[in-house]
Amino acid sequence: MKLLQIQDDGWGIRKDDLPILCERFTTSKLQTFEDLHTIGTYGFRGEALASISHVSHLTIITRTNDSPCAYRAEYSNGKLVDNGSANPKACAGNQGTIITVEDLFYNMESRRLALKNASEEYSKILEVVTRYSLHNCKVGFSLKKEGENNNDLRTPPNSTVADNIRLLYGMQIARELIPSFCEDGSYNFKMSSLISNGNYSMKKSTFILFINNRLVESSGMKKALDGIYSAYLPKGSHPFIYLSLEVEPRNVDVNVHPTKHEVHFLHEDAIISIIGNSIDKILQGSNQSRTFYIQVQFSVSFAWSSHIFNCSKIIGI
Predict the structure, then answer these.
(1) Beta strand 240-247 with 206-211: parallel, antiparallel or unpaired?
(2) Rg (CA), the chain
């Protein structure tokens, strides 16, 4: 992978913090030991930038709102590169941060060879960015290949999850979605979701799960919801599910999987059962009528039309 660049218009990084930015365990997320029990951010252990700096040529350009200019810093093996000139170096730039990763795994041939071709790796990136842009609907996202003029993904800021589903996954899915909410004081959780009703099914399951705003997987949750939908969808069909779950951060174990994809949380079976019952009731209420889309061929060979029939009105469902 020759180039990966991420840019935001956030707070930026202070110049004084740049020398230790890529050292292991550098974090801005913890102020006291007790903060470990209430972590609500995507990361906190200072591993990502440190790891990337060991296997690529890493450059960061950043500017805070009170800085007269931006600063450019180059890193290697967790340290600022000593190239005989100022590092970090003052430069022009907007508020925010640009992280540029070049020649990923240039010094690790086995890892580099394990990468798929460029198209497959880009598809994986696109899927992750799509899901995060769906969930973080108040933030605008854009993604494009290097050298291309058009974006493969672009979402507006201050949108809604429903609007972003319509934009990213299409009107056919969006018009069949129903909202679902539940919360429980005993287990201290809140759940909100947008789920497809009995009118919609797909061959491949789409299950987008966020726990405390982190994109994760939960095999127990997916299995339970697949079981509920099996009563409403034809065999071999699957639903579209977007689900956001908020629980006490101290109750989530993010270290089950090396990449933190799979998580477990306290009272998992009970919480999944409550969520499943809530979604089952929603589906029961939406299953009283079905909408079918059919094509009708008229006697004139070139006159084709698409009609929508609500079978609850036609045959009294």
Answers:
(1) parallel
(2) 24
